[in-house]
């Protein structure tokens, strides 16, 4: 079978192409087809690893250590596709590969050009994923907006593949904006122009997903069908839903999956959507509420902690609980006059996520101390675990100058320090401890109870680690080292003594959480928060 589905965007960016592509993948899986996902990012960076979270949102990490765009996180939450380095393609990767081949003389003296050399490299990378015999359909999302100069080579490669594969084996889905002007009047002209731009590069879309605040009428859909040469059944209203997990159901109710299968000449199968319906029910009609404070560094952009928000939501789904999330910029807490009692009033759980740089660190330390002393359930992720250790060393052991060498290289008590393997590294891109590593959990710990198993595997993204030279001192003062690497050399998790629920982990559990399969740590964190709320 091996079908290709290309998802492009028009009018403007941030329309939700990733959610649309993920939802289509979820629908195809619900019908029993195996799916793979590919994200193409037109930026010149080789990967997302060196970008600020304020620039491009969070960096999503795969098992094989790729630092990718956050849309791969959407793919991982909506589908069961096994994502790796191959699923993320950037302009930087493509041009770097072509230039390296040219330097090695692989082009036999020919002039190297965008067409065919760059486009061939793009096609080769797409087909490396799509040619897997276990994959029925590969959904390729092309980032950016049609009309952007950066996207031209990728759209040309897409056009070539549609031509080479044939319309029954390669379809185009275009996501556009249908705005409403003053008075609520719907305007279709931006979509007409967006489709025209796509047609100018040689691609006729087979389906349109029309983004709007409210569902669009049949009259609007018919008008757009008429002016864009897209069948009316393929013009889909992509309206704002109460939760992103309702989008697959909205597409299903409009028969988008049935339409695409017909276009690809694939026999339709029964769609099993019971799990998605249960997820939407739990999110939109929870039986109880819990309030969680997330104390982080990058609160101005929601996507900076995208996987955190979603994993918390999944933890709530597991208990049919709705979440009220209080975003607390850790810089606010650095002011000695900050009233922590007022800030954390009514909070049932505190989470401190990952991050880099010194800004806001002291505020995170104050939040951790508040959670420890007031017996509030606490989950620390990556930097959040290191904060937990720094606070404990200061408040319990009495090392007032305890710190991480990331923030104070001259500290007399470096409780967190650079990994030995990182000391000689000069380049920042792709050089952290990245990807999946195994860990061993301690019997009787919160983390062992959450996973229910001794051996676990989780994804990492860090350069700093708890200092082994002070581990004995920490444990002598009753801090529980609840998980380590299999050889016992690195601390992977720790817990406070005499606390109702506290877990700090060096890895990123949020990357493996799904709405239909919540991560055990987030599930248990929300359970503990609900218990605290009840108390």
From TrEMBL:
Enzyme type, top EC level: ligase
Modes of activity regulation: Allosterically activated by GTP, when glutamine is the substrate; GTP has no effect on the reaction when ammonia is the substrate. The allosteric effector GTP functions by stabilizing the protein conformation that binds the tetrahedral intermediate(s) formed during glutamine hydrolysis. Inhibited by the product CTP, via allosteric rather than competitive inhibition.
Binding-site positions, CTP: 13, 148-150, 187-192, 223
Pathway: Pyrimidine metabolism; CTP biosynthesis via de novo pathway; CTP from UDP: step 2/2
Residue numbers binding L-glutamine: 54, 355, 383-386, 406, 463
Quaternary structure and partners: Homotetramer.
Remarks, miscellaneous: CTPSs have evolved a hybrid strategy for distinguishing between UTP and CTP. The overlapping regions of the product feedback inhibitory and substrate sites recognize a common feature in both compounds, the triphosphate moiety. To differentiate isosteric substrate and product pyrimidine rings, an additional pocket far from the expected kinase/ligase catalytic site, specifically recognizes the cytosine and ribose portions of the product inhibitor.
Descriptive protein name: CTP synthase
Originating species: uncultured spirochete
């Amino acid at each position: 079978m091996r079908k290709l589905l290309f998802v492009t965007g028009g009018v403007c960016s941030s329309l939700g192409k990733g959610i649309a592509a993920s939802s289509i993948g979820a629908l195809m899986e619900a019908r029993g087809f195996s799916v793979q996902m590919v994200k193409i990012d037109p930026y010149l960076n080789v990967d997302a690893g060196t970008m600020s979270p304020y620039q491009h949102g969070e960096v999503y990490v795969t098992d094989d250590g790729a630092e990718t765009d956050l849309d791969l996180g959407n793919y991982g939450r909506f589908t069961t596709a096994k994502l790796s380095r191959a699923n993320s393609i950037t302009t930087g990767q493509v041009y770097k590969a072509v230039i390296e081949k040219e330097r090695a003389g692989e082009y036999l003296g020919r002039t190297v050009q965008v067409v065919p050399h760059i486009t061939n490299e793009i096609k080769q990378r797409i087909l490396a994923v799509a040619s897997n015999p276990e994959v029925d359909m590969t959904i390729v999302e092309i980032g950016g907006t049609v009309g952007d100069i950066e996207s031209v080579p990728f759209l040309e490669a897409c056009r070539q593949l549609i031509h080479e594969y044939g319309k029954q084996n390669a379809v185009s889905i275009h996501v556009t904006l249908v705005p409403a002007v003053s008075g609520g009047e719907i305007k279709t002209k931006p979509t007409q122009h967006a489709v025209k731009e796509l047609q100018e590069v040689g691609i006729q879309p087979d389906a349109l997903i029309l983004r709007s605040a409210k569902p669009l009428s049949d009259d609007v859909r018919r008008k757009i069908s008429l002016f864009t040469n897209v069948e009316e059944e393929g013009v889909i209203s992509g309206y704002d839903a109460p939760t992103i997990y309702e989008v697959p159901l909205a597409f299903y109710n409009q028969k988008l999956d049935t339409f695409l299968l017909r276009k690809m000449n694939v026999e339709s199968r029964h769609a099993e959507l019971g799990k998605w319906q249960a997820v939407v029910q739990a999110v939109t009609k929870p039986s109880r509420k819990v309030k969680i404070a997330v104390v982080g560094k990058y609160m101005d952009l929601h996507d900076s902690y995208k996987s955190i928000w979603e994993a918390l939501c999944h933890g709530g789904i597991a208990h049919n609980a709705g979440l009220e999330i209080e975003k607390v910029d850790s810089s606010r807490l650095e002011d000695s006059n900050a009233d922590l009692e007022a800030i954390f009033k009514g909070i049932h759980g505190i989470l401190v996520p990952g991050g880099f740089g010194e800004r806001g660190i002291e505020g995170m330390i104050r939040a951790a101390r508040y959670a420890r002393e007031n017996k509030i359930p606490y989950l620390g992720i990556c930097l959040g675990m290191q904060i937990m250790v720094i606070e404990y060393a200061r408040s319990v052991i009495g090392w007032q100058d305890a710190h991480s060498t990331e923030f104070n290289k001259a500290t007399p008590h470096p409780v967190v320090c650079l990994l030995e393997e990182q000391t000689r590294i000069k380049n920042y891109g792709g050089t952290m401890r990245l990807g999946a590593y195994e860990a061993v959990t301690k019997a009787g710990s919160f983390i062992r109870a959450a996973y229910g198993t001794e051996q676990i595997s989780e994804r990492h993204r860090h350069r700093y680690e708890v200092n082994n030279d002070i581990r004995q001192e920490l444990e002598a003062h009753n801090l529980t080292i609840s998980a380590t690497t299999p050889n016992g050399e690195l601390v992977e998790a720790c817990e406070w003594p005499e606390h109702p629920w506290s877990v700090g982990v060096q890895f990123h559990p949020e990357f493996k959480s799904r709405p239909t399969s919540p991560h055990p740590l987030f599930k248990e964190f929300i359970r503990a928060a609900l218990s605290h709320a009840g108390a």
